[in-house]
Specification:
mainly alpha; 2 domains; single chain; 9 helices
């Protein structure tokens, strides 16, 4: 880890307010990128609000949301958020085979049209930084405008998570086996 979170026992009043807000929310703990963002409590508060919406209040069904998250995290090859979302992804119905394909960089077998479109849109945004017109139209027609807006929100928020985890070299500290090869 390149930067440690602030000392939770010695937070500024603004940091403490945001820390308490996160603790009182559905997460119930402050760790990973949220902990690092507390260095800038305004960022932590804004990101926490966006993250809470994307994770708990989005119009995307949980399965599609977790598929987008895991697709994005696999593209970034970031350990800590991958581990943090593995159980949620499994609970949302993503199979071990699907998660293995994503983490290995293989195109997963997706029989469901909505799954395929969420995967393709997310992958396109993450890799190409754009979505081809034909894919956009098919996804909009199939998923609907609300889901498309929320999908870009989920991809954007988890890109911030991935960038934070990557830049500050956040990894699980409990000795778990790596999912992705180490970055040089």
């Amino acid at each position: 880890m390149r930067l440690a979170p602030p000392d939770f026992d010695n937070l500024s009043p603004d940091q403490q307010r945001v820390y308490d807000m996160i603790m009182a929310g559905p997460r119930g703990r402050v760790r990973g990128p949220l902990a690092l963002w507390l260095h800038r409590p305004e960022l932590a508060e804004a990101a926490q609000t966006l993250g809470s919406y994307c994770r708990y209040n989005s119009s995307l069904p949980k399965r599609l949301s977790e598929l987008a998250i895991m697709t994005l995290l696999a593209e970034w090859k970031v350990e800590l958020p991958w581990w943090a979302h593995q159980q949620s992804a499994a609970e949302a119905g993503l199979s071990p085979e699907l998660l293995d394909a994503l983490s290995s960089g293989r195109v997963p077998e997706l029989d469901n049209q909505q799954d395929r479109l969420v995967y393709e849109v997310t992958k396109s945004l993450a890799k190409e930084h754009r979505v081809p017109e034909a894919l956009y139209r098919e996804a909009l027609e199939t998923l609907g405008k609300d889901a498309m807006v929320d999908l870009v929100g989920v991809v954007g928020y988890y890109s911030l998570i991935a960038m934070t985890a990557d830049l500050f070299d956040l990894s699980p500290s409990d000795g778990r086996e790596r999912v992705f090869p180490p970055k040089s």
